[in-house]
Amino acid sequence: MSTTASATMAAESADTTDPASALTEAQQEPIFKEINAEQAVEVVEIESACMSCFKTGTTRLLPTKIPFFREVVLMSFKCEHCGFTNNEMQSASEIQKHGIRIELKVEKEADLNRRVVRSDNSSISIPEVELEIPVQSQKGEVTTIEGIIERTITGLSQDQEKRRIEHPTEAESIDAFIDRLRDLKLVKKPFRVLLEDISGNSFIENPLAPASDPQLKTSHFARSTAQNEQLGLYEQNHEDQHLLKPIAEDSWPIENLHGEVLQFSTNCPNCHAPCETNMKLTNIPHFKEVVIMATVCSRCGHKTNEVKSGGGIEPEGVRFKLRVESKEDLTRDVLKSETCSLSIPELDLDVGPNALCGRFTTVEGLLVAMREQLDGTLFHDSADEPSRQQLERFLTTFDKVIKLEQVITLVLEDPAGNTYVQSLSDDDEPDAKLIVERYERSFEDNEELGLNDMKTENYEQNA
Questions:
Q1: Which pLDDT score, from 0 to 100, does residue 388 have?
Q2: Which residue, 126, 188, 204, 273, could crosslink 299 as a Cys pair with Cβ 3.0–4.6 Å?
């Protein structure tokens, strides 16, 4: 594995500073900062029209980060003339590669307190009462399940007194529906909350985190063309051949890429300051070609290493089961792709493919990354005491695993087949502690990989 290790070092150590395009300190200042009680909060104030009296009011903007989630802009409007106020939240993070679909089964009143972060591009439905809140019908917000129901009741109750006089039949129907919504808050019987966000920037809290929640189901889906256009993402016209032109055969052989460290401009994932990402194509012995990308931010010092498969999707998925018992097991090389999910059955821990990016590391490095993700991204400040104690107990147990005081089974499952775990046997066959299983992908696996709609024959006809 020395080839890959040297490639990673080459990508990280490449000079990322271009003197001709050096940025000033003001330009590198991060836009989204974590709220800190010890530092002054930078709020942007602008004048804007009041939608109630149409006079001039004041809008305050605060770009910040939400723990366990992404960057948002908090907006607060107040009119000094009529007293009208309005608070909104808009997602400021990038649109995710896939949309997200979350289903929560509410079984007890405590489930009503689950935190919900929803963007403008999310829709919510409760099938049991035939309630549906369409996409972009409400502004994004940070709320709870009970807050969603209460906001719906408030919206339906507006103008009811006037409606009872002018349209008594419609008002009676709305009153009956409001009573059904109030019954939901009593949780007399279980009901489902379905949250779908085409931008992928919404989530519902898992109070059992980092353990899996049997009441919460999360899946991802590929957006349709209409959904992409709704987000402002338009495909390039097939008739336009001016932007991308084919290169001549053998004019840039693949061998040249193995010796090149390519660079492209991006933003730091931590502070969003402009920086450079280094990319290198390398080969992992006994596996395949991979692309290693390394980003070092000169502003905040944040470093990231990400690995993406240089080949295609394998015909079958792969599942690795590794028994971690000794120091040798912790030093095994691991290539985790961006489609690989992790689980530790002994700890009842499931980590989805989107929680940790693709990376080339060791078993110990993978466990440490999982622990840091759990410790650094949960709602520490706003979590109640039982949840905080539960997380601390879990992290203590996780530390015992890293110190080899507790034996675990690490399961890596990749439907794309682009994950690799090093075997300690001489012939590279799985050793006694490593089990490798190949399996046929399900329809849902192919759907998340975008294979069900892929046409590989006669595709020029539709184009």
A1: 74
A2: 273
Residues 294-339 have pLDDT tens digits of: 888 888 888 887 887 777 788 899 999 999 999 999 999 998 988 8
| Among the listed residues 279, 263, 209, the one whose alpha carbon sits nearest the alpha carbon of residue 69 | 209
What are the chain's domains? 33-91 (2.20.25.420), 99-231 (2.60.120.1040), 248-309 (2.20.25.420), 317-449 (2.60.120.1040)
In the block, which residue shows the tokens 């963007």? 119
- The yes-or-no verdict on residue 190 having pLDDT over 50 is yes
According to the model, what pLDDT value does residue 177 have? 93
CB distance 321 to 433 below 8 Å:
no
pLDDT tens digits, one per residue of 248-282 = 655 555 556 666 788 888 888 777 788 888 888 87
Query: 3-state SS string over 162-230?
Result: HHHHHCHHHHHHHHHHHHHHHHHHHCCCCEEEEEEECCCCCEECCCCCCECCCCEEEEEECCCHHHHHH
> What region, left, alpha or beta, does residue 320 occupy, with left being phi > 0 and alpha being psi -120 to 50 degrees?
beta
Distance of CA 313 to the CA centre of its chain: 22
Tokens of 119: 């963007």
Which amino acid belongs to residue 76? S
Q: What share of the chain is helix, strand, coil (3-state, %, to 5)?
A: 25, 30, 40
Residue 455 φ/ψ, nearest 5 degrees: -115, 120
Q: Within 10 Å of residue 210's Cβ, how many Cβ atoms? A: 23
DSSP 8-state code for residue 385: H
Query: How is 9-64 classified by DSSP, letter by letter?
Result: HHHHHS----GGGPPPHHHHS-SSB---TTS----EEEEEE-TTT-SEEEEEEEEE
